[in-house]
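User: What would this chain look like folded?
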Amino acid sequence: MDASTSLETHSQDRHQHEGDHEHHELGWWRKYIFSTDHKVIGIQYGLCGLVFLFFGFSLMMLMRWQLAYPGQALPVLGKWLPYFFGANTMPDGKMTPEFYNSLGAMHGTIMIFLGVVPVAFAAFGNFVSLSPAARPRAAGLRMCRWPRLPIKAKRITRFSTDNRFG
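Assistant: Here's the prediction, encoded as structure tokens.
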């Protein structure tokens, strides 16, 4: 038996052994919610940031309504807003000056810290991954090199927003 025969036998055994392992697809919950893929984490940050940008925009629209129609009751949401923001914020559907000022502070804080920063830095940084340490696709990997770091950061973001608005 020469060397070429033994190599062929060895390579056939190796291929037969690898055929025993099947690749299974992850479920939706595991793939998109608890993902370690940097692109999915970037998309999560982006969607979360867009939701908060919409919420900040809604607060700004309430302020614009007050400027356009001072002293008038808000037509549809006027009776529901006191349940969300407190009883003394909009008596009879009319906005108080203190509530107007608090809307301005909430609008600015939400737009910058919960909208712009997650979209501009976290979503863009995770999705594109410009740093070589976090660029798994260039290295031929399927997931982040340190998957726990962006996952923990995303969970901290979720926890802080749940405690702030929950």
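The radius of gyration is 26 Å. If you want, I can go into more detail on any region.
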